[in-house]
């Protein structure tokens, strides 16, 4: 029994099938383990008069098989490293916002999408994360590091749609009110543009969930160099999937655009982006490129002036723009800087 992979209904069903019990004990079990981080759940009052079941559950209970082995903090942004059972390392980042903390979770150890500017891509692909390894990052952030987290962004290491089934299962486990209790509207899935994944997520009808898409250039030749995924799913194919995506009436697609000096920061690039986004309901996140550990000499970040100039070109055309000077650059926790090589 691995509670990091189960919803309340499933736990309740398991207790019913095995012991003729149900919601009362399932709620207690999730409260002790998921909300309080107490693996010694059999001491909870609900189990006092159910010692037979308690013993059986304890022997069937799987402790999380991962460990937080390192954590670093800068400006209240915390990056932590988790060592998995097979020696793989993954990174997660806790980002302070005005009223709450957001946890950026990884869905893969490494990534096979090969984006040119990305530190994760350079460290190669190891494997998909299992559901409990994804949800375990929130478990650790809350119960090991003691942080209050109310938002989740699937924006850490890996392409979430490349691990689709485990992603969707993790979303459902995160959302469980008796367990992690993160509202769908407080979760964002970020993709580099894997169109089948966008369409598959759309088919689930989770319209409260936010979708973020890394565009980085609205010119196919440039985007294909930055992001090999564009050769499989070029810009027009991506835009058709985004146009079809079922959005809740007050929600937008977040377009991520990492500004790289001399590559995608010109007025022509801004005009192409405006034209590309015209039919879509979007907000644009502009992010200054973060050079990684061994940065590609072709790529450099932009200064504040260039960032402001690019933003004003977009805003003059009516786009809503959010400028993000990445938090946590020094501790390599900024966008595109997570790595399995820690
Ligand atoms: S930017 Fe995202 S999708 Fe692209 S290689 Fe890095 S982790 Fe993978």
Automatic annotation (TrEMBL):
<protein>
    <recommendedName>
        <fullName>Radical SAM core domain-containing protein</fullName>
    </recommendedName>
</protein>
<dbReference type="InterPro" id="IPR007197">
    <property type="entry name" value="rSAM"/>
</dbReference>
<keyword id="KW-0963">Cytoplasm</keyword>
<dbReference type="InterPro" id="IPR027492">
    <property type="entry name" value="RNA_MTrfase_RlmN"/>
</dbReference>
<dbReference type="GO" id="GO:0070475">
    <property type="term" value="P:rRNA base methylation"/>
</dbReference>
<feature type="domain" description="Radical SAM core">
    <location>
        <begin position="97"/>
        <end position="341"/>
    </location>
</feature>
<keyword id="KW-0489">Methyltransferase</keyword>
<dbReference type="InterPro" id="IPR004383">
    <property type="entry name" value="rRNA_lsu_MTrfase_RlmN/Cfr"/>
</dbReference>
<dbReference type="GO" id="GO:0008173">
    <property type="term" value="F:RNA methyltransferase activity"/>
</dbReference>
<dbReference type="GO" id="GO:0051539">
    <property type="term" value="F:4 iron, 4 sulfur cluster binding"/>
</dbReference>
<keyword id="KW-0411">Iron-sulfur</keyword>
<dbReference type="GO" id="GO:0030488">
    <property type="term" value="P:tRNA methylation"/>
</dbReference>
<dbReference type="InterPro" id="IPR058240">
    <property type="entry name" value="rSAM_sf"/>
</dbReference>
<dbReference type="InterPro" id="IPR040072">
    <property type="entry name" value="Methyltransferase_A"/>
</dbReference>
<keyword id="KW-0698">rRNA processing</keyword>
<dbReference type="GO" id="GO:0046872">
    <property type="term" value="F:metal ion binding"/>
</dbReference>
<keyword id="KW-0808">Transferase</keyword>
<keyword id="KW-0408">Iron</keyword>
<dbReference type="InterPro" id="IPR013785">
    <property type="entry name" value="Aldolase_TIM"/>
</dbReference>
<dbReference type="Pfam" id="PF04055">
    <property type="entry name" value="Radical_SAM"/>
</dbReference>
<keyword id="KW-0479">Metal-binding</keyword>
<dbReference type="GO" id="GO:0005737">
    <property type="term" value="C:cytoplasm"/>
</dbReference>
<keyword id="KW-0004">4Fe-4S</keyword>
<keyword id="KW-0949">S-adenosyl-L-methionine</keyword>
<comment type="similarity">
    <text>Belongs to the radical SAM superfamily. RlmN family.</text>
</comment>
<keyword id="KW-1015">Disulfide bond</keyword>
């Amino acid at each position: 029994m691995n509670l990091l992979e189960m919803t309340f209904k499933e736990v309740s069903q398991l207790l019913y099938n095995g012991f003729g019990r149900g919601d009362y004990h399932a709620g207690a079990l999730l409260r002790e383990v998921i909300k309080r981080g107490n693996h010694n759940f059999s001491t909870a009052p609900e189990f006092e008069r159910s010692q037979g079941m308690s013993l059986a559950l304890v022997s069937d209970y799987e402790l999380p098989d991962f460990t937080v082995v390192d954590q670093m903090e800068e400006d209240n942004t915390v990056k932590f490293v988790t060592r998995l059972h097979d020696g793989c390392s993954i990174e997660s980042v806790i980002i302070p916002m005005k009223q709450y903390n957001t946890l950026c979770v990884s869905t893969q150890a490494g990534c096979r999408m090969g984006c040119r500017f990305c530190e994760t891509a350079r460290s190669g692909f190891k494997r998909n994360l299992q559901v409990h390894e994804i949800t375990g990052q929130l478990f650790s952030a809350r119960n090991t590091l003691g942080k209050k987290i109310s938002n989740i962004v699937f924006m850490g290491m890996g392409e979430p749609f490349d691990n689709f089934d485990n992603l969707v299962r993790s979303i459902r486990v995160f959302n469980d009110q008796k367990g992690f209790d993160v509202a769908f509207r407080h979760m964002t899935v970020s993709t580099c543009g894997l169109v089948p994944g966008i369409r598959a997520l759309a088919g689930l009808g989770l319209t409260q969930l936010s979708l973020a898409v890394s565009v980085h250039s609205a010119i196919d030749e440039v985007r294909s160099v930055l992001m090999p995924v564009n050769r499989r799913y070029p810009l027009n194919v991506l835009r058709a999937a985004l146009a079809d995506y079922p959005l809740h009436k007050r929600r937008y697609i977040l377009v991520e655009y990492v500004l790289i000096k001399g590559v995608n920061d010109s007025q022509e690039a801004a005009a192409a982006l405006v034209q590309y986004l015209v039919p879509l309901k979007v907000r644009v996140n502009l992010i200054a490129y973060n050079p990684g550990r061994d940065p590609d000499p072709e790529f450099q970040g932009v200064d504040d002036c260039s960032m402001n100039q690019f933003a004003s070109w977009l805003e003059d055309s009516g786009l809503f723009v959010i400028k993000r000077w990445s938090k946590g650059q020094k501790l390599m926790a900024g966008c595109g800087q997570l790595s399995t090589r820690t």
